[in-house]
Amino acid sequence: MNRLKAIRRRRGLSAPQLAARCAQLGAPEISANVVANIESGRRQVNLDQLAVLALALD
C-alpha cells in the first residue's frame, strides 16, 4: 500500500503519529509497526482498519 505511505507523508505524519491517531480512534492494534507492514505489503488490511486509517488521515 504505497498510497498509504504517500498520503501519510503528504499529511506530514510519521508512522508512530499515525498509529497514535488510530489509537485515539479506538484502534490501538494499529501500531507503528503495523502501519509499516501495511505500507510495505507485508500485512493485509481489513475493512475496519481501512476505515480507521482513513479517518486518522482525514
The end-to-end distance, rounded to whole angstroms, is 17 Å
* Largest sheet properties: none
Summed up, the domain count is 1
Poorly predicted sequence stretches spanning 5 or more consecutive residues: none
Radius of gyration, Cα only, in angstroms?
10 Å
Task: Please report the number of helical segments.
Answer: 4
SSE arrangement, N to C:
HHHH
Helix content: 55-70%
Structural class: mainly alpha
Q: Provide the residue-averaged pLDDT.
A: 96
Characterize the overall form: globular
Keywords:
mainly alpha; globular; 4 helices; 58 residues
Give your account of this protein's structure.
With 58 residues, the chain is an all-alpha fold. It has one domain. The chain is 67% helix and 0% strand. The chain is built from four helices and no strands. Helix 1 crosses helix 3 and helix 2 packs across helix 3. The longest helix is centred in the last third of the chain and has 11 residues. The radius of gyration is 10 Å and the shape is globular. The two termini are 17 Å apart. The model has no long low-confidence stretch (mean pLDDT 96).
